[in-house]
Amino acid sequence: MTAAIDRILDDTLSGVRLADEDALGLLASNDLVPLGQAANQLRLKKNPAPIVTYIIDRNINYTNVCISGCRFCAFFRLEGDDGAYVLSDEEIDKKIAETLELGGSQILMQGGLHPEFTIEWYENLISRIKNKHAIHIHAFSPPEIVHIANLSGVSVGDTIRRLREAGLDSIPGGGAEILTDRTRAIASPNKCSADEWIDVMRQAHKQGMRTTATMMFGHVETLAERVESLRRIRDLQDETGGFTAFIPWTFQPDNTAMTVETKSGGFDYLRTLAVSRLYLDNVDNIQSSWVTQGANISQLALYFGANDMGSTMIEENVVASAGVTFRMSEKDIRRLIEDAGMTPKRRNMKYDILE
Fold first, then answer.
1. How far apart are CA 216 and CA 196, in angstroms?
2. Residues ≥6 apart with Cβ < 8 Å to 337
3. Exposed/middle/buried for 346, CB within 10 Å: 0-12, 13-18, 19+?
4. What is the distance, to the nearest Å, from the Cα of residue 310 to the centroid of all Cα atoms in its chain?
5. Per residue in 11-59, pLDDT tens?
6. CATH homologous superfamily of domain 19-346?
7. Which residues are 211's β-sheet partners?
8. Domain residue ranges of the chain, discontinuous segments joined by +
C-alpha cells in the first residue's frame, strides 16, 4: 500500500471527511484489501451489530413502453413494437397477492417513460392498489416523476404531492446512473438531467418522503465523474437527510446499444463499493448488488462496506433483459449472510427490523 493511500484511509477512519481528490485516488488504486478493510471498519462504526438486512419485495415493471431510448437499456420498447406491454389491473393484483403470500412488505414499481400516461393515470394506479392491498409502494424513479410532471403540465413538487396523496410511500433512486450531464448526454439524452434528478429527491425529502440513491457505473463515465456523482448525493444528504440507502451496481452491456472496451467486474465493483462507504459518511446503509454480481461477490461485499443485501426480488426484468439472471430466494440470502458470519434480519424500506 502506498503512503498516500495509507494517509487517506487513516484520515478517513479518524473522522476526516473524504475529499474528492482523495476519493479519486482511492478509485484509481489497486490496493483493494486495505481499502476493503477501511470500509468495513467504517461500516462497523455506523452499524456495530453483526447484522445484515434484506427486504422481501417484488419489482413490478408496469410498462416497458418508453420514449427515453437509453443506450444502456435492453428492456424498453417503443409503443407498437413487438413485446411492448402495459400490465392490466388483474396482472398487477396477481403479482402483489403472490408477494404478500411470500411475506413481502413492499412492491417496487418502475416503468418506461410512457408517451401518453399523465398524472391521473398514475394516481388511479396507486390509489387502486392501496384500496385493495396493504403494501408499501416504493415507486417511480426521478426520471419517471419528471416525465409525468412535464407531460401533465404540473410542477415536480405538485406531482410528488399528488402521488403521495394517492398512496405513494417512497421513491426509488433509479435513473441516477452517473449524475453528470456529460455522461447522461451520451447514455440517456432524453432522460432527466442530473440537476432534475437531484431536484426530485430534494422535493420528496422536503415533503417527508424517504428515498434511496443509486449509481450505475462502468460505462462512459470517468473515475472523476463517479466521484462527482457521489458528491451530489452526499451534498443533498447533508441538506435533507432523506436517503435511507445507497446502491451501486455495474453496467451490464449485453443486448444493449452501448459497448464498453472492458466490462466492469468484481474488482472494480468492490473497490467502488468501498469508496462509496468511505465517501458517503452521512448515508447509513450501503447495499450489496447480488443481482449484478452474483452470490460470491455480493457476500464478499459485506466485508467491503455493505450492510444490506437488498431485495429477494421475487421478480426482476430490467437487469435480466441484459442477460444477467442471478436468482436468490429468501433462504439463499439468509444462508449467504450466515455463511459470512453475520446475522440476517428482514427489514422494511426505512430499515426498521421486522423480525
1. 17
2. 52, 54, 299, 302, 309, 343, 344
3. middle
4. 9
5. 999 999 999 999 999 999 999 999 999 999 999 999 888 999 999 998 9
6. Aldolase class I (3.20.20.70)
7. 171, 243
8. 19-346
